[in-house]
């Protein structure tokens, strides 16, 4: 789960919608599925998307993206869920605006308050400060609009509202490792700990009569 805290009430629940011969099921923060309700031997039943991230625009959560569903020709099926104010929680409308990209409208009283889908209040104090600083930099013309949007994207990624790409995640881990070993003292300390850990593991293997083959770069 990520996003406005009051929407956590939807987690763990599923909502259905039947149109023609298809039954759609939306499970917030989990997935969207489609089931063909016919007696055909090859009736389709599959995943239209798995909970991925929010779509954010102008300090507002404008939609939920469910991605990496079942394969469809050369890509995966994906679904955008629009949250709109309604008297009860229900899946109200489903369409397929482009091949294998679906659009769902979900009605809920949880988004009826004008501030219910604001992004800023869901952030930690540290990330709110970061956003305030970016606003000031933009106002003072010390960063461009593009630079401001880049900072916001990083804030939303850090908050878990947007998915970080695998490349970016690897980059982050490398930075972390580089910081860990930025001094000889830190490096020596870490090396000592790892050497002790390897010795313990070797002893454990020997106790159980398991062969161990190491190499010079262990």
Automatic annotation (TrEMBL):
List, alphabetically, the InterPro entries matched.
Answer: DMAP1-bd, Gtb1-like, Man6P_isomerase_rcpt-bd_dom_sf, MRH_dom, OS9-like_dom
A Pfam family matched in the record: PRKCSH
Q: Which GO cellular component terms, listed alphabetically, does the Swiss-Prot or TrEMBL entry include?
A: extracellular region; Golgi apparatus
The record's subcellular locations are: Golgi apparatus; Secreted
Domain DMAP1-binding stretches: 119-218
User: Which PROSITE patterns does the protein's record reference?
Assistant: DMAP1_BIND, MRH
Main location group: Golgi
Which protein are we looking at? N-acetylglucosamine-1-phosphotransferase subunit gamma
**Species of the source:** Steatornis caripensis (Oilbird)
